[in-house]
Amino acid sequence: MRINDVVKTQFDFGWKKWGKNIPGYAEPTLKHQKGDILDIGCATCELYVYLRKNGWNGNYYGIDIKRYPGYDYPDGAHLIIGDPMEMEFPPVDTIVLYNILEHVDDPVGLLEKALDSSKNVLINIPKRNEELWEYGVVEFHQLDKTHKNCGFSTEEVYTLCDIAGGRLVDYEEFIEIKPTFGLASWNSNLPKYVMILLNRISFAILNLFFSSRKFYSDIWCEVVKK
Fold first, then answer.
1. C-beta of residue 103 within 8 angstroms of C-beta of residue 179
2. Are 102 and 149 in contact (CB under 8 A)?
3. Which CATH class is domain 17-180+214-225?
4. Do the beta carbons of residue 151 and residue 128 sit within 8 Å?
5. For the whole prediction, is pTM greater than 0.85?
């Protein structure tokens, strides 16, 4: 008997079906796409569903390393299973690299290949806020064991694009996070008065350092070939 027949091994809530929780990168995709789209790391092709519902009528190709069993992929989405670095890309106008560069061994190589195969590349990646880390604040993307790197700083995004032969034409940060967001995950088995005291102390300390600062969890950008 396989372990996944007994114990659930995937957190599949919230991403297989977007529902009303539309990611922040969905609207910029509609605005910045140039026509036909290749979505690398497409998962369940929910981006395609969003685009269709909002009037986009181009051809959509999605690449992912596996097909999710029992999931009904949307009609009209051309799904390709395999490693994007080992295949020829279909002819498209825009390539989407959403939440994929942090998972691959060679993000520069993948971006370079995407730039050579399209008019523009749209990227979404987790932002690395090291200033928060220094004070023990954990960001959710740090907990993803499939990541090959720990997110990207702003400087690294520009360097990555430059090395890959690209030029940033648009850059945005979104999904504001507060330094105190991780406090809710503390062990609730502690005595209530201890929890209250720890929360008050932590809020005071974190707000002292970060009250005038804004931090964001995601970076979105548009890149074109130099």
1. no
2. yes
3. alpha beta
4. yes
5. no
One-letter amino acid for residue 106 of the chain:
D
Of 220, 202, 208, 69, nearest to 137 by C-alpha is: 202
Low-confidence ranges of the chain (pLDDT < 70): 1-16, 130-150, 178-213
Write down the pLDDT at residue 151: 78
Residue pointed to by tokens 């993307």: 141
Contacts for 25 with CB less than 8 Å, ≥ 6 apart: 98, 122, 124, 218, 220
Radius of gyration of the chain, Cα coordinates, nearest whole angstrom = 20
Q: What is 111-137 written as a DSSP string?
A: HHHHHHTSSEEEEEEEB--HHHHTTTP
Domain ranges in the chain?
17-180+214-225
Size of the chain in residues: 226
Q: Hey, which residues does 124 pair with through a beta bridge?
A: 98, 220
What is the rounded CA–CA span in Å between residue 219 and residue 216?
A: 8
